[in-house]
Amino acid sequence: MAPVVPKGETKWRRLWAALAVLAALVIAWGSLTPGSELPESLPWDKASHFIGYAGLAGLIGLAGVRLPQALLISVLFGAAIEVAQIPVPGRFGGDWHDLLANTLGAACAVSALNVLRYQQGRRPVRG
């Protein structure tokens, strides 16, 4: 039986889902832009990966996707982006350090949501 969504929460979940799609599109656009079209130096490259994927996983979790699945979706999306970067001129796809930063960011967001849900008295969702 599917969990019952509290009244009034559906509109918020739709908003979070739309923002998650937008975040994924922004991440894909930024990640797949040729190197020649990017600023010469991007500060805190790994922090950008961490923050971007933390936001993505957090939005997916807020949209109502089970947290383990939100983490998995974010990590797989990051891996797909790394592979898609390989043929992009001026980009170095397949960077394990980027993938690690993506995974750590997503894991931190999912962990934070799990703690917040627990503090609100909502049972953590296992999936």
Q: What do these coordinates show?
A:
By secondary structure, the chain is mainly α. The protein is built from four helices and no strands. α1 packs parallel to α3 (67-85) and α2 crosses α3. The radius of gyration is 16 Å and the shape is elongated. The model has no long low-confidence stretch (mean pLDDT 88). Keywords: Membrane, Transmembrane, Transmembrane helix. InterPro entries: VanZ-like. It comes from Halomonas pelophila.
Low-pLDDT sequence parts: none
Tell me the helix content.
55-70%
SS-based class: mainly alpha
Order of helices and strands: HHHH
Largest sheet: none
Intertermini distance: 14 Å
β-strand number: 0
Nearest-integer average pLDDT: 88
Percentage beta strand: under 5%
Overall geometric form:
elongated
How many separate helices? 4
Q: What would you report as the Rg, rounded to the nearest angstrom? A: 16 Å
Quickly describe the structure.
The chain has 127 residues and is an all-alpha fold.
List the SSEs and their pairings.
Layout lengths: L8 H24 L12 H18 L4 H19 L10 H24 L8
Helix pairs in contact: 1-2, 1-3, 2-3, 2-4, 3-4
What keyword list fits this structure?
single chain, 127 residues, mainly alpha, 0% strand
